[in-house]
Amino acid sequence: MRFRPAYIFLFLFLWHFVGMVPAGAQALHTTSGKAVKYFNDARETYFLMKYQLAAESIDKAVALDPNFLEAQLLRAEIYSDMKERDKAIESYRAVLRIDSTFFPNAMYNLGRLEFRLGRYEEALKHLEAFLKYKDNDQRVVKKADRDIRNCRFAIRGIQHPVPFDPVNLGPSINSPLDEYWPSLTADEQTIVFTVLVPGRYLRMRDFEQQDYQEDFYISHKTDTGWAMRQPLGEPINSRLNEGAQSLSADGKVMFFTACNRPDGMGRCDIYRSDKLHSGWSNPANVGPPIDSRNWEAQPSISADGKTLWFVSNRPGGQGNMDIWYSHFENGRWSIPVNAGSKINTPGNEMSPFIHNDDQTLYFSSDGHPGYGGFDLFITRKQADSTWSEPMNLGYPINTYNDEIGLFVNAEGDKGYFSTDREEGRGKDIYSFMLYDSIRPHFVTYMKGKVYDAANKRPLRAHILLVDLQKNEVVMDAMSGKDGYFLVCIPTNRDYALNVSRDGYLFYSDHFPLKGVHRIEKPYIKDVPLKPIRVGEVMVLKNIFFEFDSYELKPESISELEYLRDLLVKNPGLRIEIGGHTDSKGSNQYNMDLSKQRARVVYQYLIDHGIDKSRLTYKGYGETRPVSTNATEEGRAANRRTEIRIIGI
């Protein structure tokens, strides 16, 4: 049994006090020997954690003598542990009515329980009254000060509610069972969630109880809504618990929490499974340094698959449960880093969710100012890579209940979460529109298929997305064995796309996403890769020159490096670099400009270690257009740098 901080004093008091005083003695606040007998019965069964039996006995004691102070105290503790807070409040009020000085912590415990039920005005009154007692335990005083701040925070928040209109996802997703922890692919076509399902019956002599376990369920979007959910099945679902999953943006990888498995390193560990042509791969323990002898759970994988956020109680944290993260570098996970004191508190932080923009983190906490229990918060990565002060998402998104496990779609306008706010339904999954100040940065996505340009066979290929201005890789992914890929693209930047595979020319493209671009019109792009053979031509779409000049722009560097790498990996490869222009200007001018631009690429490769015997260059001017010169788009396509294979 885990005792709440203030109640431990009541527990010790009742244990020692009753143990020293004979049953029926006048030192107890009752003259009823029968009430004392029921009190002692309740005390013994409570210590054995037989809460229902303890409750039945203590109710009998209180019924015989409502002024039996010690019995009211024990009743308050029993019902607190049983989460029947109204009955606990009833008994604490009786204690204070009988003798408000007998057990001063009763005033704190009463205020704390009222706070946990969202009765903030009443809680504030009793918590402030507790501070007026003399000789209070300073540890409890510190907690009372925190709860008073939370009460005032909650009262202000309720006076200024935020927009919130949750919508139940319906019977295809929800059932009379508990559903929670939703995760979706970036295109919102697939949802995976955790369900608490009936398991085996536990039988012990005359005792029988239905056991429950956590399994994963999946549903796919149809023209009319979500299809009827189906269990994810083996080998992920098992007779043990699986939950708190994180689905990769393309839905091909899932990280999740599993506990007490034979290959586990601690009580709960993080596992990975990959989507196969049919079903999922056998779950693999992520292993050290992420998993340890401590508790690791609730993973959240970044859109590029390179950062894993999770929760752990490992040493070196700020409090009990903290949020940590690890980077995937050189084929392995790095030593986890604590998310720091802005995010983590001396309390508990849970359910991290890193949005596809890789700049916005949502999480739950009972340590930051809130409405009681776990509240949902948002923090954003700043220019210096630190995180902003977390902001409570506000009332009525947050309430006195526990709010854990928020998922925000790639577009950033909709949240998904689970709640049991509708009486009699259990936990269901809901969606709601996010108000503006808690939305992440705009993100779109690109999906398509990589295939062999000659025979149309799907290819597993390496996909890089590069911020042209910073020359920085922002997405590093692989297409599946079926060639399909989905990558998220944070907007308001200009990107270079590079798709490569050994034995093929790489494919390049660019996406000018300066300004706001919404996800309603994602990029759908199939990528043909050309085998390396004599005569094949590749357009370098990310070679840029200054206007009417052959001076290279800095944004061209990443593309030039990819070309250099191709030549290094294929030492027998010989190429011609061809420059092309649109039809503006004279024929001779265009011929000279195109030749100079081709020469600049030629010289860059020589300057960076490529033998000039493998290279030639030529200007074609406006003689080989690939589009019309009557439009700006056509002219832009005609202004290009091409590579043609002349030997291998």
User: What oligomeric state do the depicted chains represent?
Assistant: single chain
Given as residue ranges, the uncertain stretches (5+ residues, pLDDT < 50) are 1-6, 15-26
Report helical residue fraction.
10-25%
Q: For the record, what CATH class of the largest domain applies? A: Mainly Beta
CA radius of gyration: 32 Å
> Structural class, judged by helices and strands?
alpha+beta
Mass-distribution shape: elongated
Number of helices, where a helix is a run of at least 4 consecutive DSSP H or I residues: 11
Task: Please provide the count of β strands.
Answer: 34
Main β-sheet description? 5 strands, antiparallel
Tell me, rounded to a whole number, the average pLDDT: 90
Instruction: Report the β-strand fraction as a percent range.
Output: 25-35%
CATH superfamily of the largest domain: TolB, C-terminal domain
List the domain count as a whole number.
Answer: 4
CATH topology of the largest domain: Neuraminidase
Task: Using the 3D structure, state the CATH architecture of the largest domain.
Answer: 6 Propeller
N-to-C span: 72 Å
